[in-house]
Structure formats: C-alpha cells, structure tokens
Amino acid sequence: MIRNLLSIDLEDYFHFIGSAYSFPPPAWDGLESHVCRMTENLLETLGDHKATFFCLGWVAQKFPHLIRDVAAAGHEIASHGMYHEPVFRLGPRAFRQDAERSRKLLEDCCGLSVRAYRAPGFSVRPQDTWFFRAVLLAGYDVDSSLFPGVRSLGGIPNASPYPRSMDFPEGRLHEIPVSTSAPFGVRTAFCGGGFFRVFPYWYIRREIRRLNAQGQPAVVYLHPRDIDAEQPRLKLEPVNGFLYHYGLTAAAGKWRRLMSEFTWMPFGGWLEDAAA
C-alpha cells in the first residue's frame, strides 16, 4: 500500500501574502491569534497519522509551547521561514540568514533536528537558480518549495512533479513537490490550501488514487485555518477572498474523510523508507 505524504503549513489566519491587504509583520502582534486553537483542532483530526509541520518562525517565537506540543504528538517539525516573506524578495544572502535563524529557533523549541524547508507561497521561480543550493547551505537536506506549475508568487512550470534528488558539491538535497493536476488546463495543487476546499472530494480522491496507481505518493498540504470555520473573515480581493473563505463550513468533515480513506506519513519517514 502506498503511504502518502502529509504536510501542514503552521501559520496564523493573517499570514497570507500576495495581496494588497496582507498584514506586514509589525502588525501581527496587534492581531488576535487563533493559531493555537486552530492547530489543536487540526491535531485532533489527524488521529494516528503523522505529518510534517512546516512551522513559521514567528509562531515559534510567540508560542514555543505549540511547537513542543506538535513534536510531542510525534509529528515532524520543519521550517517555513521566519516571517512568511517570498524568497525572491529576500535574495540569496537574506534568505540564508532567514532559513538558518528559523531552523535554529525551531530546534531550540523542540529539541529535535530540523531537516526540511518550504518557501512561503512556494515562491521559487525559474530565475531563482541560487535557491536550492542555498537551502542546503542553510542546514537542510529536504525541500518542498518547488511548485511544478505557475502561481502568483512563483512556480517552475517545466519541473518534474515527482520527488527527486539534487546533487551539489556540498551534498544532496531531496526535493518533494506538492502534488498537482490540471483539470482546466492550469496546473494547481488539487489537495492543498484553499484548493482542498474548492475541489470536490471525489476529484481529490481520484487524483490521489491516480498517483498511487503510478507508484507515486500524493503530497498534500493544509493550513490549520483551512478547516477552521470560526476564523475571522478578512478583507481580500475577490479571487483571494473566494479561495480563502470558500467551503470552510464543510472542510473539517471533508478532511476527516481524507484521513480515514488513505494512509499518511511525514516526509522524513518516507525518505527513510525509500533509503531502506
């Protein structure tokens, strides 16, 4: 039986980017946080399944006990950067500083090695050729930043959609892209973020089964806010607002069904099995 890869981007409801209404980091402390409650609810839905949690450094600074609770529940702790800044805006030097700082902060919180990184918004573009080596140099050997399609903040359309390795003089980086499909001719994450709520369950299940029939694991991701119907409604552009708020009422039940019908595991466990 194929075991699929489950990942959670651990951030608050106000950590959205790519919008004229995005909140800058200095404003975050003045907003009411829901991340602890939302994450506790999400952990309950996972049951015995384990996931890789890509944690925002800001969350670890503000709520270190939350990172420890996630780790204590047996989940893998990974990095989502410090302040949810697109990597192409940071550039090579600032990115490496950000990635190193978030890794060390998370390791101090949970007492475990942090080996995986995911860029905010999958914000890696074809011209960001420096990025993958910089991830390795920042102390990681697993990355899940590559989006094999086009997104508002990045994406590499011609990239392989399957897990693979990249070799550099400094070592090997394992790249694990999120799974995608192209139902309308545009490649998107069929079981990721807002698209998990937009696509009907039968379609998500079909696409996971398609990948599994090819011998490939489905790589899915979710934010705690994606199944939280009680979160504040934010002012956003029409398209962003639709993706951010659509289907919230039914999302928790849909997620529980997904957890019950498939077998899930974290990235680190899958890599260990692949190497065995």
Structure in a nutshell:
This protein has 11 helices and 9 strands. With 276 residues, the chain is an alpha/beta fold. Strand 4, helix 6 and strand 5 form a beta-alpha-beta unit.
What does this structure look like?
The protein has 276 residues and is of the alpha/beta class. The chain has one domain (4-9, 34-275): Glycoside hydrolase/deacetylase (TIM Barrel, Alpha-Beta Barrel), CATH 3.20.20.370. The chain is 40% helix and 13% strand. The protein is built from eleven helices and nine strands. It has helices spanning 25-28, 35-46, 57-62, 64-72, 87-110, 131-137, 194-198, 201-213, 238-245, 248-261, 267-275; strands spanning 4-10, 52-55, 76-79, 116-117, 142-143, 164-168, 171-175, 219-222, 264-265. The strands form two sheets. Strands 1, 2, 3, 8 and 9 form a five-stranded parallel sheet that branches. Strands 4-5-7-6 form a four-stranded mixed sheet, covered by helices on one side. Helix 5 runs parallel beside helix 6 (131-137). The longest helix is centred in the middle third of the chain and has 24 residues, at 87-110. The two termini are 16 Å apart. The relative contact order is 0.18. The mean pLDDT is 93.
